[in-house]
From TrEMBL:
Keyword presence, Secreted: no
Pfam families tied to this protein: DUF58
Residues covered by the DUF58 domain: 208-353
The species this protein was found in: Mucilaginibacter ginsenosidivorax
InterPro entries per UniProt: DUF58
Keywords annotated in UniProt: Membrane, Transmembrane, Transmembrane helix
Transmembrane region(s): 12-35, 41-61
Protein name: DUF58 domain-containing protein
Domain of life: Bacteria
């Protein structure tokens, strides 16, 4: 019996409407001292309020389960994307109820204002949708759903608690990957900023000899076949396939820097995942290497249908480390793992020429055997400061320092080009598009 009463009090909440009614009752009692003609009116108002309170309690508590709620969530969340979730609610009361819903979302979002309000008719059902944008990979723990039901009288609320505790993993941005996949399949990559690259010449992979039609390149005419057939015949070529594309991700402290809630490592991971997906659609082989002071994951390049899931599972677990990358060990791994000439995309970050110079000897060695593409980040905050007009001595000092760092980034691009190393200097938010553009450009120019 004690349990029932404790639960009753625990789940009963008084509303502002009840307090307003009590306030009015108190005011009338006070006025009755100055206006005796009010008589029994104050007592009638008070006991009417008490009666309405008891009726409201009876309305909400006579039904054991007046409402039902359940959370609808995907099996996993996509990092840096808006993920759709929903709370399904159903009214089992024979009257209209006002509903307030609290969904206990993971602490990582640091939101304490998740409160949904709605009204339900008898036996009506609703799905309330909302979205969450995680900025870190890992496990996110959701708690219970708490529903506060209020009758048309509105003097109290009854709380219902639905145990919905669950843990959802946050993976690298697979929603972004799917978007690029669909556009690559339908040749609509230009819709999201991917440039259409004009092919120069043709690939070396011969496909067939076919009849000449208007528009064919006359340089591909096969004179021997023409002489045999008596009609103009041309050689047909197709894109070279099964080229190897390796993403190497630097996990050192240089990739810890945050931008719009995500670390540079997360931007590199998202871009690697999308690049691997597009490469597989283009019938190339995709591989992955992660490195810091020691080598992390190594996935040899392949075109199997399971390759992308394998890469996704590995990237999900990667974390930033706090030591510098061991470039000697990385070079040794590249030489051991990558057996043929490949496109090697190295995601890292350099803030100064000194940082580049420490790694340059190893980058030059890798570039001897592979087509090396170094991808690093533009510091957008420094760029904004360098473009801002200085108004005082301190502003001039800050602007000068910012311009110096921005200039160093451009020098790094020139230094890499001097040794035949391709590079991309990109703002974090444009990293994926710029990386895919460069991949398609290199593929079109047959540099791989």
């Amino acid at each position: 019996m004690k349990n029932i009463y404790s639960l009753f009090y625990k789940d009963l909440f008084l509303t502002n409407r009840l307090f307003t009614g009590l306030g009015i009752s108190v005011v009338i009692f006070v006025l009755s001292f100055f206006f005796p003609w009010l008589g029994v009116i104050p007592a009638l108002v008070f006991w009417a309020l008490v009666l309405l309170f008891l009726i409201d309690v009876l309305m909400l508590y006579k039904t054991a389960k007046g409402v039902f709620a359940k959370r609808y969530a995907p099996e996993r969340l996509s990092n840096s994307d808006e993920n759709e979730l929903g709370v399904y609610v159903e009214n089992w009361y024979p009257f209209n109820v006002s509903i307030g819903i609290i969904d206990e979302i993971p602490f990582q979002f640091q939101k304490r204002d998740i409160w949904f309000k709605t009204t339900l008719k008898p036996h009506e059902r609703k799905l309330i949708s909302y979205s969450l944008r995680p900025t870190k990979r890992g496990e996110y723990e959701f708690g219970d759903i708490r529903v506060y039901a209020k009758s048309p009288l509105g003097l109290i609320r009854r709380r219902y608690t639905f145990e919905q505790a669950e843990t959802l993993p946050v993976y690298p941005s697979f929603l972004q990957m799917r978007k690029y996949e669909l556009m690559a399949i339908s040749n609509r990559l230009t819709d999201i900023g991917i440039k259409k690259i004009r092919r120069i010449g043709h690939s070396l992979e011969f496909e067939q000899v076919k009849n000449y039609v208007a528009g064919d390149d006359y340089r591909t005419i096969n004179w021997k076949a023409t002489a045999r057939q008596g009609n103009l015949m041309v050689n047909s070529y197709t894109d070279e396939k099964s080229q190897h594309v390796y993403c190497i991700i630097d996990k050192s402290r240089a990739m810890k820097m945050p931008f719009e809630g995500l670390s540079l490592l997360d931007y590199a991971i998202n871009a690697s995942l999308v690049l691997s997906s597009v490469a597989l659609i283009k019938e190339d082989k995709a591989g992955l290497i992660t490195a810091s002071e020691k080598i992390g994951a190594v996935i040899p390049a392949d075109r199997k249908s399971s390759q992308l899931n394998k890469i996704l599972e590995v990237l999900y677990k990667e974390r930033t480390r706090y030591l510098e990358t061991n470039m000697e060990l990385l070079y040794s791994t590249v030489r051991t793992v990558i057996k043929q000439r490949s496109l090697v995309v190295f995601f890292t970050n350099y803030e100064s020429m000194n940082a580049l110079n420490r790694q340059l000897p190893y980058l030059k060695r890798i570039a001897k055997f592979h087509l090396l593409l170094v991808v690093f980040f533009e510091n957008t905050e420094l760029k904004t400061l360098s473009e801002k007009q200085a108004t005082d001595l301190e502003g001039i000092y800050i602007k000068t320092i910012a311009e110096k760092f921005a200039y160093d980034k451009k020098l790094i691009v020139k230094e890499l080009a001097k040794y035949g190393i391709q590079s991309i200097l990109s703002a974090p938010q444009n990293l994926t598009i710029n990386t895919i553009n460069k991949y398609l450009e290199l593929k079109a120019k047959q540099k791989i």
